[in-house]
Specification:
Helix 8 runs parallel beside helix 9 (about 190-200). It contains ten helices and eight strands. The chain has a single domain (about 5-215), classed as Aldolase class I (TIM Barrel), CATH 3.20.20.70. The protein is of the alpha/beta class and about 220 residues long. It has helices at about 5, 20-35, 45-55, 75-85, 95-100, 105-120, 135-150, 165-175, 190-200, 210-215, and strands at about 10-15, 40, 60-65, 90-95, 125, 150-155, 180-185, 205. The chain starts with a helix and ends in an 8-residue tail after the last helix. It has an eight-stranded parallel β-barrel with strand order 1-2-3-4-5-6-7-8, surrounded by seven helices.
Length: about 220
């Protein structure tokens, strides 16, 4: 895989709470320059990303119920509907993690389904925060993603105690039914890490280090 091919799998991400409009201007310009798949920003900055990416290939995407996933399902659905109205091309929602760990799969199912319905056909990625789940819970989350029509299961927010691991991507790849894609995110900083996630089965990567990854992709400057 060449650098430009790797770039096409990257969601160039800026979700830091202190992110400002000028930061979004920069990441949008970087996404256009390097050919990233998308730019992922916080909801209040989505309209700016939509404007700056208009007419270019990278997609504007945003997050729902971020970063804890503990919002009411109705709140997430309203946030999703508003994001779609504002031009989001994809939505990355955080699952109700506590409900899954409590065994309340009905609540988790409705939480996901409410966002998928509100998205009105816009692809939804469900962030399950793998570092907080047992392997059994990760498999259950994959099944619920499929049942509710989500497009992706996503490993992490990047705001919890750990991010994506190769082991978790492999587990999700094995557990995911046909048609459910996998996005690895959280802590992916180098070409070596990105390659490992792709080889383990990730269809897409979320990272704030996209520029460094593609810059060093063909140079062997992979770090550790």
């Amino acid at each position: 895989m060449l650098a430009h091919q790797a770039a096409s799998l990257l969601d160039h991400t800026l979700l830091a709470p202190e992110s400002r409009p000028e930061d979004i201007e920069r990441v949008c310009a970087e996404a256009v320059e390097h050919g990233f798949y998308a730019v992922c920003v916080n909801p209040w900055l989505l309209p700016l990303a939509v404007r700056r990416l208009s007419g270019y290939a990278p997609l504007p995407i945003t997050v729902i119920g971020f970063p804890l996933g503990a919002n009411l399902a109705a709140s997430k659905a309203e946030e999703a509907a508003r994001a779609v109205d504002l031009g989001a091309a994809e939505l990355d929602m955080v699952m109700n993690i506590g409900a899954l760990k409590a065994g309340d799969t009905a609540l988790v199912r409705e939480d996901m389904a409410a966002v998928v319905r509100a998205a009105r056909g816009v692809p939804v990625k469900v962030i399950i925060e793998t570092c907080l789940l047992t392997d059994e819970e990760k498999r259950a989350a994959c099944a619920l993603c499929t049942e509710t029509g989500a497009a992706f299961v996503k490993t992490s927010t990047g705001f919890s105690k750990a991010g994506a691991t190769v082991e978790d991507v492999r587990l999700l790849r094995q557990a995911a039914p046909p048609g459910l894609k996998i996005k690895a995110s959280g802590g992916i900083k180098t070409p070596a890490q990105a390659r490992a996630m792709i080889q383990a089965g990730a269809d897409r990567l979320g990272t704030s280090a996209s520029v460094a990854i593609v810059r060093d992709w063909d140079l062997g400057l992979e770090g550790t």
